[in-house]
Amino acid sequence: MLICTGIPVAGQDQPGYKAPRLRGSDHPDLNGIYQAFTTANWDILTHSAEAGPVPSLGAWFARPGGQGIVEGNEIPYQPSALKTKQQNFADRLKVDSYKNRGMGDSELKCFMPGVPRATYMPYPFQILQGSSKFIVVAYEFANASRVIHMEKLPPSGVASWMGESHGRWEGDTLVVEVSGFNDMTWFDRAGNFHSEDMKVVERYTPMSPYHMMYEATIEDPKVFTRPWKIRLPLYRRIEPGARLMEFNCVEFTNELMYGRFKAQPTK
Amino acid sequence: MRVGYRGSIGAAVILLAVLTLSPRLIAQQANGGASRPGSDQIGRTPWGDPDLQGIWNSLGSLPFQRPRPGEKPPENEEAGPPVGAPGNTPVLKDALGNPTSERATGNGPEHWYERGLSIRTGQTSLVVDPPDGRIPPMTPEAQKRRRAFDESMVGVAKDEPRPGGWLETSDPWLRCITRGIPGMFDPTTTAYNMNFLITQGPGWVAMVSEMIHETRIIPLDGRPALPSNVRQWLGDSRGHWEGDTLVVETTNIEPKTAISASTL
């Protein structure tokens, strides 16, 4: 028997919902702290549970199984790029801070996570939407942040970890075009990667007082044979006094990255 | 980066820091002190708060502390190159009298550097209280810790990271952890990337620092501070408006952060 529960289905349009407006503006108020509820940071494709990389840590850092966030559960790699992805996975815990900064997962090294990964890491982020010409997104992980320029600006042409974000409203959906990335961030710990030519178009659509739908279309002709899309809900953190805590992981990675440079007094 | 060690000062940081950021003062600095806009000239957000939103720069030419008698007089009293420019590079010394530059990594090329403007305002140091423009002396315990650290640094290699190098003895800025508060606004280091973006919403002010990409989110809702055992590099900031002045109280500061690069 089919029961209609009325519970909203992820990805389904909710034309009935109209988000509150930001004071002094015609646009929806997206201010708040949000968090994804997925295991996509381990692997954006559907994956089974697996032991973690450090046996002594037992179940603590094992990988939970989870449903992927990629439309069709397939990433359209070019054949040579698929080999790179597999090599990335094999090298994901390797670090060479001196000669090959790009090797290994950027998350491991506390580098900024890039877009769209910052959105679905297991840390909250805060949308700071004021009455100015930019919307700031502050991520708890590594103090990463982005400035979404809502006025038309020419691209700076400078590559960066979080890319360069240009936003506009399409109805109640915040559409953000992001480009100008470096090639050192990954999509997940599974080694899924992109080049510096990646372009991401994100869509943030308020669905209820408690959640938004997030969609991102990824285009990178150097790595993929066609554009592809991810989709996941973002949930509002509603506990009283919800806030971002600091996760400044630079110090946590000092031993990993620079242990060989530790001081040895010469006197 | 022309940065020496600053952590020993951080060890003595009082845990309650109050930062006052006045739109009037900022406007005055931004336009060279040419005018002092009245309250009616300050923009308002749609919800009525003074509007501080925009991209700001904290470069300046004032020394953090007023030089002692016999030291080079501050910029405001005698025309000269801005602090940090060739001909006016302060020599920061540790408790043993050794220049801290001996421990810094190499400077970047000259074209990296942005130099502060010379603005004559009558103010002669960033420290305005006490009136002598000097940070009050450290407690004997803090002085002991600072001296012990400085002694431990004698003979430690400088410059490029290498075995025998600098990791845990370098300051948090050099390690790209943080500039701390109020160090993140300290103009006296006259380095680069001294830009700040301020954005405001109903109930909060946020400051994004270009250097080390830190975002400082300041709630204005009167929430309580974090439990005192919780320490953060940027502490826990809570703000309120006193007239047109944004008053921010910051607590829970990680003791390893610095007040300023130039307080040694």
Relevant terms:
heterodimer, A: nine-stranded mixed barrel, 3 helices, 24% strand, B: 264 residues, four-stranded antiparallel β-sheet, 7 strands, 10% helix, 16% strand
Write a structural description.
The complex is a heterodimer of chains A (267) and B (264). Chain A has 267 residues and is mainly beta. Chain A has one domain. Chain A is built from 3 helices and 9 strands, in the order βααββββββββα. Chain A has a 9-stranded mixed beta barrel. The N and C termini of chain A lie far apart (81 Å). Chain B has 264 residues and is mostly beta strands. Chain B has one domain. Chain B has 3 helices and 7 strands; from the N terminus they run αβαβαβββββ. In chain B, the strands form 2 sheets. Chain B has a 4-stranded antiparallel sheet with strand order 2-3-4-5, with no helix packed on it. A 3-stranded antiparallel sheet of chain B has the order 1-7-6. In chain B, a hairpin with a 2-residue loop joins strand 6 and strand 7. Classes of the chains: A mainly beta (267), B mainly beta (264). The interface between A and B is large, with 39 and 42 residues.
